[in-house]
Amino acid sequence: MKTFKVLGPGCKNCQTTAKLIEEKARALGIEAQVEKVTDLAEILGHGVMSTPGVALDGKVVHAGGVPSESQVEQWLRT
């Protein structure tokens, strides 16, 4: 199972990012857990200065803006 953390204050882009990951995982039949992290200290602890950020299995793979569907698919398939 892949574990994603969407790092951000809970803004519309953060919500869109989490929903995109969940929907893409479901469409591909890949098991994924998506956690929304709104704690500023934890977000900064990941080194994310521009939100939303996405961490996959503990490693930041994206920061700033909603990722593309192709990016999300790539994360899920690797």
What does this structure look like?
- The protein is an alpha+beta fold and about 80 residues long.
- β3 and β4 (about 60-65) form a beta hairpin.
- Helix content is about 40%, strand content about 25%.
- It has three helices and four strands, in the order βαβαββα.
- The longest helix is centred in the first third of the chain and has 17 residues, at about 10-30.
- Strands 2-1-3-4 form a four-stranded mixed sheet.
- It has one domain (about 1-75): Glutaredoxin.
- It has helices at about 10-30, 40-45, 70-75; strands at about 1-5, 30-35, 55, 60-65.
Strand and helix layout:
Elements: E1 2-7, H1 12-28, E2 32-37, H2 40-45, E3 53-56, E4 59-63, H3 69-77
Parallel strand pairs: 1-2
Antiparallel strand pairs: 1-3, 3-4
Helix pairs in contact: 1-3
Q: Could you give the order of strands across the largest sheet?
A: 2-1-3-4
- Gyration radius from CA atoms, angstroms: 11 Å
What name is given to the CATH topology?
Answer: Glutaredoxin
Could you give the order of the helices and strands? EHEHEEH
| SS content category | alpha+beta
Low-confidence runs of at least 5 consecutive residues: none
The CATH homologous superfamily corresponds to: Glutaredoxin
Instruction: Give the class-level CATH name.
Output: Alpha Beta
Q: Tell me the count of domains.
A: 1
What's the N-to-C terminus distance?
11 Å
Q: Which architecture does the CATH hierarchy give at level 2? A: 3-Layer(aba) Sandwich
Number of helices: 3
Helix content estimate: 40-55%
What is the typical, i.e. mean, pLDDT?
96
- Quaternary structure annotation: single chain
Number of strands: 4
Overall 3D form: globular
Fraction in beta strands: 25-35%
**Major β-sheet annotation:** 4 strands, mixed
